[in-house]
Amino acid sequence: MATAIRGFIDRYNGSGKTGAFNWFFQRISGVILLVLIVGHFYIEHFYAPGTIPTYNVVAGRLASLGWKLFDLTFVIFALWHGINGIFEFIDDYVHSNGWRLFLRALFWFVGILYLVLALLTILPFSVPQGGING
Amino acid sequence: MSLAVGDKIIFKIQRFSSDADKKEHYEDYEVEYRKDGMMILDGLNQIRWEQDGTLSYRRSCREGVCGSDGMNINGINMVSCMTHISDLKSSVITIRPLPGFPIVKDLVCDMTDFFNKYYVVKPYLIEKTPPPGEERLQSIEDRNKLNGIYECILCACCSSSCPSYWADPDYLGPSALINAARFVLDSRDEGKDERLDILNDKHGVWRCHTIMNCIPACPKELNPTKAIAELQQTIVSRKY
To answer: Residue A125 — very low, low, confident or very high, per pLDDT cuts 50/70/90?
Structure first.
């Protein structure tokens, strides 16, 4: 029953016990992602017409703090949105506490792993002096 | 295909008895189209009264008020007493019990879980203050807010058509939730907070993923998805 006492695992099942925050922030992050994607698309294709997005062009952009922040925001919201969506699937279809714990732990791990990889890729990135050859 | 009086139609009915059968099977019955406006329920009655007295199904008022005869007809949930045979435009009509409920016999399902979920949302007016006069009055505008919600006949067509309801055995389902909305949106009700606390649960309003199967399933043309969205909105704006 919906009002049944929640178990140990359910109490630690994410940012909100009830799912209200997850539902609400899924919508907000969706809107934010839409804005970021449209912005990204515009910059890649229309901002500087004629520029081919080669490694050098992207590397030059990524060297600036603004772009680092833009890409990090993108990664954080995309990861949260995607993994929260998977948590919704788990809530829908997985009802055994053991499997829920395993799958949630797995996707927490996947999320943190990708976040760390993104941080390692974006933050220390810099263009060597004199640009990149080749 | 248009039907004329005297035509024969095949009713392909899923049969199962929890006492005798291991698996469901289909049986075909020939039904005579005896008058224009004949309903599926008239066809079922014809079979039960004239051909096979063992066929089981629920029916009571035969005019879309009691909500007893929800069933899956040609793949869509509907109540048999409100469905014209001629509207289905097919010579073979496949009838199954409502999906997602345990079958007791033939078209009769065990509705215990469905009604328990209905009782969970406290489907009655909660009063905390004595009535101001002889009765609790409501403005015409406030009363109009309940249109499209209060007409539910608890036939279970919506909940039984909902994939989230099939997936999560604890999900309250569109029927219980539209009935909760009927009281949450009622200006006279004083139990809004305790009711919303029940609905604000992993197995409450948040399991609705706006699949919207419940809308075409409803024989009263109500919109449970919209009612659930209003509840979600109310909970979110109360909290954030």
So the answer is: confident
